[in-house]
Amino acid sequence: MLRQARLSSRYLVLLLTPWPLLSTASAPDASKAAALNSDEFSWHKIAPSDELVWHDCYSGHQCARLKVPLDYENPDGASAAIAMRRIHSVVPHDSPEYRGPILASPGGPGASGVDFIQQFGHKISVIVGPEFDIVGCDPRGISRSTPRASFFEDRAERNLFWSTSGNSITASSSDDALARMWAQSMLVGRLAGERDDGNLRFIHSDYTARDMLRIVEAHGREKIQYWGFSYGSVLGATFAAMFPDKVGRLVIDGVVDSENYYAAECSNNLMDTEKVWTAFLNGCVDAGPTKCPIYSPTAAEIQATVDDLYDSLRKRPIPVRTATSYGIVDYDLMRNTIFVSLYKPFALFPTLARALADLSAGNATGLYQISEAPQFKCSCDLDEFSFENVNDGGLAVLCNDGKRISKSFEDAEKHYRNLLANSSWADVWMSACDRLACMAWPEFPKTNFHGPFVANTSFPLLMVGNTADPVTPLWAAKKMAQGFSGSVVLTQDSIGHCSLAAPSLCTQKHIRNYFRDGVLPEAGTVCSTDSGPFDALLEGQGVEGGGEEAQVVLGGFSAEDRTLLEAVQGLARAWDVPLGM
Fold it and tell me: What are the backbone dihedrals phi and psi of residue 376, each rounded to the nearest 5 degrees, phi first?
């Protein structure tokens, strides 16, 4: 779920969509990253319409902009336009085998469903089967959906604000770090209020859930089919609680405690974070020096090496210049980069191990490149970036959803101490969960839906949780399941954020069977993974990269299972799956 507005432009890429938008190569390809953040197709060509009208876009996909009420309490007033992108089912729509659209949400709040479909829709299609359309939308206020939330006059002002306000800090970086974060948050709230064009108050999950129902109805369907990740689980639970009779198939994956989310607490996300970091240490020991370059005979020795690197960077940050950018590797960058790797261990643990080993030898380039992003460039064309994804919309959702936050710095300190008592990663999470940014938020009426999350839905929900998820613990899935009659929790015995963080043929077959045939796994079902984070070779990671061990893993499967596992492996080994929490 959550991203962060308090971080530098590089960290925005990391925690705005915490599975970083980077290349799957050993070092990020800046040109690829830039292409992912730009539109090859002009959304200006599509006029918003009351009916769902699809237009060819990009390469073989279809796009639409659907009109919905800006304010559902005044449905005949102004409208918003929801941008959507779909991958058409392989099965023709007039075939009896066609099963309709699945709406996929990568979370955030603030992540782009349009981008998600662009990058990974085909792999999702392989998982669920050819009978479904795969549809992603940019939620209201986000990216290509208009009106878009913006607290800044232009792109240059936004970039200057985040890059010059001391915003790449963690709460443990210095004695005044938390105070600086608090001061910046007060500025963000003030800017949001001053720059509000009157539309900001309508950007929240209640209305997004209503938009989802409009999208379902525009497809000529009565009930939703939905797969939501991380914050997308909040959207799914919200929809199910608001419209229990409109649930056809609903999977929420990487489940957030929605009550805690709407209370703006961010207080129980880190219950299993340490388990994931411990898995890195122990996995490195088990992998040995060939696959884990920072190897030592014991986990304690590796931890000591990492602690020494933290101390070294506190005393003397390292300047880095690459072919495409430059920056400073300091304590905060190292801390944030390690935290991000916990989201995607199968993609990032081998690369992180190499980067840390290089750092021990005085070379910081590898660590820098994990989070490297294209340098900001101005444009004289006002339309060129009018549909780009910015952090403002995600903050709008979060702050409009949550209860009011005290403006007191003392209360912020207390909240941090409470988090720190439960997890050593509280210093990063204080920034990553965005709670502080809502302290000075405009005082809009809090009349939107906040629960309860209790419903007898027209079809049971499927909830998916990992045994060690860094920000959405399995406990939350079990808690949320109690409120929805007949729902089942499917446990994936893995580390990482959401099921797509790890390759499990078992998990994805259960999800396919649920969508295709309405079959829920038996209560208590636990799925294992088909490989480990350090199984891929450092050169040519993953199935698509041609790693030798990945080919061995695929050797014993049927042709159908091979195709499915290749998609699952590709998602698990990719750096750039933008699932936000």
Answer: -65, 135
| Under 8 Å between Cβ of 493 and 282 | no
Question: CA dihedral defined by 390, 395, 400, 405, rounded to 10 degrees?
Answer: -160
Nearest to 250 by CA among 276, 227, 284, 281: 227
| Residues in Cβ contact with 563 at an 8 Å cutoff, skipping those fewer than 6 apart | 126
pLDDT of residue 39: 52
What are the tokens at 265?
Answer: 């607490």
For the chain, the straight-line distance linking the first and the last C-alpha, in angstroms and rounded, comes to: 1
Cβ burial of 538 (10 Å; 0-12, 13-18, 19+) is: middle
Containing 320, the helix (H) or strand (E) segment is strand 318-321
| 224 vs 243: CA distance, rounded Å | 10
Establish whether the linkage from the previous residue to 106 is cis, with ω within 30° of 0: no
Q: Tell me if residue 488 falls in helix, strand or coil.
A: strand
Class in CATH terms, 55-148+201-267+450-531+559-569: alpha beta
Per-residue three-class SS string for 83-120 = EEEEECCCCCCCCCCCCEEEEEECECCCCCHHHHHHHH
3-state helix, strand, coil in the chain (%, to 5): 45, 15, 45
523 class by beta-carbon count within 10 Å (0-12 exposed, 13-18 middle, 19+ buried): exposed
User: What are the beta bridge partners of residue 463?
Assistant: 252, 489
Task: Please state, in angstroms and rounded to a whole number, the distance separating the CA atoms of residues 216 and 93.
Answer: 15
> Domain ranges in the chain?
55-148+201-267+450-531+559-569
In three-state secondary structure terms, 301 is: helix
Which pLDDT tens digit goes with each residue over 390-445?
889 999 999 999 999 999 999 999 999 999 999 999 999 998 887 888 999 999 99
Enumerate the β-bridge partners of residue 247: 224
Listed in sequence order, the residues at least 6 apart from 23 whose beta carbon sits closer than 8 Å to its beta carbon are 29, 32, 33, 575, 576
CB neighbour class for 539 (10 Å; exposed up to 12, middle 13-18, buried from 19): exposed
- For the chain, list residues with pLDDT below 70: 1-40, 164-168, 381-384, 536-556, 575-581
Contacts of 353 (CB under 8 A, 6+ apart): 280, 284, 291, 292, 293, 294, 295, 534
Task: List pLDDT tens digits, range 75-90.
Answer: 999 999 999 999 999 9
| Residue 179: per-residue pLDDT | 94
Instruction: Give the C-alpha separation, 466 to 342, whole Å.
Output: 12
Angle at 405 between CA 399 and CA 406, to 5 degrees: 155
Question: Residue 354: which residues within 8 A CB-CB, separation 6 or more?
Answer: 293, 294, 366, 538
The whole-angstrom separation of Cα 562 and Cα 559 is 5
Residue 107 phi/psi, 5-degree rounding, is 95, -140
pLDDT at 490: 98
Residue 2: the pLDDT is 41
- Predicted pLDDT at 543: 35
Do you know the residue count of the chain?
Answer: 581
Task: Calculate ∠ Cα 528-531-535, nearest 5°.
Answer: 155
Q: Are 423 and 450 in contact (CB under 8 A)?
A: no
CA distance 86 to 256: 26
Rg for the chain, CA atoms, rounded: 22
Half-sphere exposure of 476 (CA within 13 A, CB side): 32
